[in-house]
Design brief:
By secondary structure, this protein is of the alpha+beta class. It has two domains: 40 residues, no CATH class; 49 residues. A three-stranded antiparallel sheet has the order 1-2-3, with no helix packed on it. It starts with 11 loop residues before the first strand and ends in a 9-residue tail after the last helix. The model has no long low-confidence stretch (mean pLDDT 91). The structure holds zinc ion (ZN). The site of zinc ion has 8 residues, from loops. Zinc ion (ZN) binds next to loops.
């Protein structure tokens, strides 16, 4: 995966993963570390990207209520507040309705 800071392709995958299990990399060119989500709008989320996408997708596609979504995802072990769902909808609905989002480059 190219370095999101200097675009170098000479990067190394590290053994260590992020807390959520994302691959991490080291760039000898600029001596920085990064992970699969660095530079994407999902970088600082406490939840896996797939979960965020699912929540927003189900909200848009099936018009589920905030309470429905909280309950559904609580059963899967993710505690979401109504406000979190609303924030994600605001932030990520435009990405989902765009034709394709390629990780890395917004
Ligand atoms: Zn770099």
């Amino acid at each position: 995966m190219p370095c999101p800071y200097c675009q170098s392709k000479e990067t190394k995958e590290r053994k260590q993963k992020t807390k959520l299990g994302y691959k991490t990399f080291y760039c000898p060119g600029c001596e920085r570390k990064y992970n699969e989500r660095t530079g994407s709008p999902f970088n600082f989320l406490e939840y896996p990207t797939e979960i965020v996408f699912l929540v927003v997708l189900w909200r848009l596609r099936y018009k589920l209520s905030l309470r429905d979504l909280s309950e559904i995802f609580l059963e899967r072990g993710f505690e979401l507040t109504h406000q979190t769902v609303l924030n994600w909808e605001k932030q990520f609905a435009p990405l989902i309705t765009r034709p394709f989002f390629s990780g890395g480059q917004p």
